[in-house]
Amino acid sequence: xxxxxxxxxxxxxxxxxxxxxxxxxxxxxxxxxxxxxxxxxxxxxxxxxxxxxxxxxxxxxxxxxxxxxxxxxxxxxxxxxxxxxxxxxxxxxxxxxxxxxxxxxxxxxxxxxxxxxxxxxxxxxxxxxxxxxxx
Length: 135
Prior knowledge:
The chain has a 6-stranded mixed β-sheet, covered by helices on one side. It is an alpha+beta fold. The longest helix has 19 residues, at 50-68. Helix 1 (50-68) packs parallel to helix 2 (89-99). Helix content is 22%, strand content 31%. It is globular and about 45 Å long.
């Protein structure tokens, strides 16, 4: 059996990992994107404005990581949304649908006890790079 290629994805356009992990890893055409919080890359702090502002920033950060690997939001096939408060579910959806408007990825959403840096939302994703056809 031949070995699959693994590539570590890193971009300065998204916040650096705050622990011993990569922003993303690509194996073959599958990209695993680490959880993104609403961290402003320029200031290294969470954005102000509550859960919607943090969701927008987290998804923007994800977009920069996708771009670094030659992809975009249309390549995302699965996301996991972690919420400090499940009551923010609809507010997150309002922002989420502006990034994923058709052929929505599969998704799970959970309330968690706490998130890194006191974030209100964290979003991770799995993407498949290259051309995808819908059937």
